Structure formats: C-alpha cells, structure tokens
C-alpha cells in the first residue's frame, strides 16, 4: 500500500512515479478532491512530463465517478491552471512536479478562485480519505457520472495577462527566453505574440526528461546557457522559467542575474502606480531591505511574512494586498486571484524596460541597493542548538534587534541576517545582507562559523 506520508507535502502531492504513486492512486485523489471541496465541477491541467497525461486523466476519472463535471484544459503552465480556476470559478488541480527530475510528478490543488489547498486548508482531509479508501476500497460511484469537457484556455490566459500590463508603447527589444524544456515553451509564444519583441527561444521543445538542464533557474548552474546567449545575441534581457513556468528569473544585457528582490521592488512600484500610489505589498523576510524601502517611497505599505507561498497568499487575503513577492522568484498579484504568476512579472519587467531608454542593468540598479549573500545551506546535527548559539552571540550587541517570525533574524541599521531551519532536512538556511560587500562578507562568515562550529 502506498505510503502517503512520503508524497503528501505541506502544499502539494509529490513523489516518484510509479514507485511512490500511480494512476490508481491519482484516481482516488480525484474522488477525494471532489468530496473535500464539495465541488459540482472542477478544472484539471497538466505539464509536459511523460506521466502527466495519464495521471491527470485518472484524477479526472475519479472526480467524474463521483458525479462531478470536469473541464480538462490539457497542457498548461501552473499559472494557466490558476487562471482557469479563477476565470471559471472552479476548484482546480495541476499535474506537475515543477523543477523536480523527470521521474517525479505531483498535484498542486486549489479551490475556486485559485485559493490554495494546503495541509490546513483541505490537503490533510484529502490524504485521510485516500488512506481510508486504500484500506476499504474505492468509494461507490455516483448514480450519474459527471460530464467531461475539453477546453483550451491558452489564448484567454494570454489575453488576460496582457490586459493587466500596458505594453502598447514599448520600444523594440531583443529577448532571450530559456524555457528549460518546460511549459514556458508552450505559453511564451502566445503571451508575447504581436509585441515589438525579437524572441530568441532556448529549449522550447516540451520534454519532461529535461535533456539540456534542470528546469530550476534558482540554481545558478541552470542559467549559465542563458547568460552566455544573452551576451552572444546582444540581447536587451533574458528570461528563464522553471518547469511549470510559474517562476521567472531575469538576466540583464550583461548576462548578470537580476535579483528576484529587485524584480519584486520594480513590480511593486509599478503595481502601486497602477493603484493610485497606495496599497499593501507583501514580501517575505529574506527579500532585500530595498523592497520595503521602495514600497514606502511609492506610497505603499510593506508587510513582512514568513517564507512560503501559503503565508504570502494568506497575508494577501487578510490585508487586501495588491502584490506580493518572494526571493525565490514567486510573484503574486491581487488581479490574478492572489496567485503567483512569473509570466505577469515578466511582462511588467518588459514594460518597464521598453518604456525606458536605459539598459536593464541601469534600470534595476535603483532596486538593488545592498550586497546580499544568497541562500547558503549548512548541514547540522541539532538545528535548535545552533540557533541558540547565534542568539547568544548577537542578542547583547548594541543597535541590534532579534525576532523569530521564521527562524532567527538579527538586524542592525547596516546589516541583517536570517537563519531558518529546513522542515524536511537537517539544514539551516542563511541569508545575509549589508550596506556593502565587505560588511556582508564579514557577517556571513561570522554566522557560518557559529552554525558550523
């Protein structure tokens, strides 16, 4: 019998196919999803992984057998599934394992209007139902099965995104796009069609075996090709999408990565302008200090949260925020049902660049004011003892504040660092930032010495 504790994560289902889960299990998940969401109809989509069509069809079959109507939108990005959930006002399920290797697959689920389904918002209940049915047998079918409908939402998704960003006056730009053989290769041509852009495609062929590199642009190794190509082509900008194309990374004309915090600040300024210079912007606690500064400078109110999309989305709903950003390159928009869409963030960056005469490196410099360490992982035997050691080392320093919103954050007027424990591995994750490179390096090395002592 399948061990659901290994595949049902905090926010989604994810595991190796067929070792940890298969189509029979996907069918049970479909029935459970229908019951927990109390849906009369749902929408289902999938990415380009070899196992995705079979798993998504099985999930749909499970819901259909419970009398629930199913709209299948087929190949799509995760944010395209969120669009369908929002526009059709239906609970949705996306079959993808994002940037994980080819043998993995998973399900990202949401309620109507793209509201997230996580452990505390239905996922634990779905798991409990599936575990019960694994012991007792599948639930009895409904008296009348649901109706299956196929629907292509790509054009509508693209049109909706384009309605949220004014791209009418941009200058011609040369854009290199690395889709990583993921769903960006499906969505980018339609979303960018008709704009004054020369698009240089890289790895647009949909291939869930990822023959060129992992579809995880957060790892610097996976944007090496893009950085080189931008310089070779004399391009204005490079964009890289992850496997399910819900995250977007940006490279400037010199081939240098643009910090996701700088992208967050840039988009926040634009969204505040769209909303009359007022509004709340959510950012997690490892984004640069620049983000909160820019938000205040443009009339907005910054709100700091823990790391993780459930916290961002929860705070957006609570505060009515217009935008949210994470340093992992997830970008959330009120006008997109508080869901994350890297494609919409990319359109904002293209619009900003296309209406300014300066190169991207000059444009983004104002949003990148500090020296950051990036995230550094350390394997430890006792997470709490290392956090306690850090607290002892820094709590008595002058002009220092400590908080434990997520791990331990230590702040002074000129630098800060955060150390967070991993929930799944014996790791501590360090992020540090300072007014200059020398100070950042000193703080980074001091903290790492304590963590790794």
What tags apply to this protein structure?
Alpha-D-Glucose-1,6-Bisphosphate, Chain A, domain 3, 453 residues, 4 domains, seven-stranded mixed sheet, Phosphomannomutase/phosphoglucomutase, A-D-PHexomutase_C, globular
Overview of this structure, please?
- The structure is a single chain.
- The chain is of the alpha/beta class and 453 residues long.
- It folds into four domains: 4-152, Alpha-D-Glucose-1,6-Bisphosphate, Chain A, domain 3, CATH 3.40.120; 156-254, Alpha-D-Glucose-1,6-Bisphosphate, Chain A, domain 3, CATH 3.40.120; 260-365, Alpha-D-Glucose-1,6-Bisphosphate, subunit A, domain 3 (Alpha-D-Glucose-1,6-Bisphosphate, Chain A, domain 3, 3-Layer(aba) Sandwich), CATH 3.40.120; 371-451, 2-Layer Sandwich (TATA-Binding Protein), CATH 3.30.310.50.
- The chain is built from 14 helices and 22 strands.
- It has helices at residues 23-37, 52-64, 78-88, 123-136, 154-163, 184-191, 224-233, 260-274, 289-297, 309-319, 342-354, 360-365, 383-394, 437-451; strands at residues 13-16, 41-46, 69-75, 92-95, 104-111, 115-116, 148-150, 173-178, 197-202, 237-241, 248-251, 257-258, 280-284, 301-305, 323-325, 331-333, 371-372, 376-379, 401-403, 408-411, 415-421, 427-434.
- α1 crosses α2 (52-64) and α8 (260-274) crosses α11.
- The protein is globular and about 70 Å long.
- Keywords: Isomerase, Magnesium, Metal-binding, Phosphoprotein.
- Residues 6-132, 156-255, 265-370 form the Alpha-D-phosphohexomutase alpha/beta/alpha domain.
- This is Phosphomannomutase/phosphoglucomutase.
- Belongs to the phosphohexose mutase family.
């Amino acid at each position: 019998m399948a061990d659901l504790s290994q595949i049902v994560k905090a926010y989604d289902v994810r595991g190796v196919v067929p070792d940890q889960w298969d189509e029979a299990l996907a069918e049970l998940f479909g029935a459970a999803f229908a019951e927990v969401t109390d849906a009369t109809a749902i929408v289902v989509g999938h990415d380009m992984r070899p196992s995705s069509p079979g798993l998504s069809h099985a999930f749909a079959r499970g819901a259909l057998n419970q009398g629930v109507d199913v709209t299948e939108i087929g190949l799509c990005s995760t944010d395209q599934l969120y669009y369908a959930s929002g526009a059709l006002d239906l609970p949705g399920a996306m079959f993808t394992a994002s940037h994980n290797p080819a043998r993995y697959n998973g399900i990202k689920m949401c309620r109507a209007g793209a509201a997230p389904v996580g452990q505390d918002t239905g996922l634990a209940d779905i798991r409990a139902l599936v575990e019960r049915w694994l012991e007792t047998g599948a639930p009895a079918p409904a008296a009348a099965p649901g109706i299956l409908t196929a629907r292509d939402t790509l054009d509508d998704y693209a049109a909706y995104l384009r309605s949220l960003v004014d791209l009418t006056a941009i200058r011609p730009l040369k854009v290199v796009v690395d889709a990583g053989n993921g769903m960006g290769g499906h969505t980018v041509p339609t979303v960018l069609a008709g704009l004054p852009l020369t698009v240089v495609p890289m790895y647009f062929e949909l291939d869930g075996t990822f023959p060129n590199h992992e579809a995880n642009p957060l790892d610097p190794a996976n944007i090496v090709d893009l950085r080189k190509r931008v310089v070779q082509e004399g391009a204005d900008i490079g964009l890289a999408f992850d496997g399910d194309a819900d995250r977007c990374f940006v490279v400037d004309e010199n081939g240098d990565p643009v910090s996701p915090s700088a992208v967050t600040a840039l988009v926040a300024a634009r969204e505040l302008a769209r909303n009359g210079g007022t509004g709340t912007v959510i950012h997690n606690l490892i984004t640069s200090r620049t983000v909160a500064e820019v938000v205040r400078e443009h009339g907005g109110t910054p709100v700091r949260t823990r790391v993780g999309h459930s916290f961002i989305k929860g705070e957006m709903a609570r505060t009515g925020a217009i935008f949210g950003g994470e340093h992992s390159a997830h970008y959330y928009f009120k006008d997109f049902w508080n869901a994350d869409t890297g494609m919409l963030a990319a359109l904002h960056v293209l619009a900003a660049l296309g209406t300014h005469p300066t190169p991207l490196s000059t444009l983004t410099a104002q949003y990148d004011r500090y020296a950051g360490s990036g995230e550094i992982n350390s394997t430890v035997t006792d997470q709490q003892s290392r956090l306690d050691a850090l607290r002892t080392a820094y709590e008595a320093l002058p002009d220092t504040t400590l908080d434990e919103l997520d791990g331990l954050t230590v702040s002074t007027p000129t630098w800060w660092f955060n150390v967070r424990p991993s929930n799944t591995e014996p790791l501590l994750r360090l992020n540090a930032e300072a007014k200059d490179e020398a100070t950042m390096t000193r703080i980074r090395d001091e903290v790492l010495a304590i963590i790794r002592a």
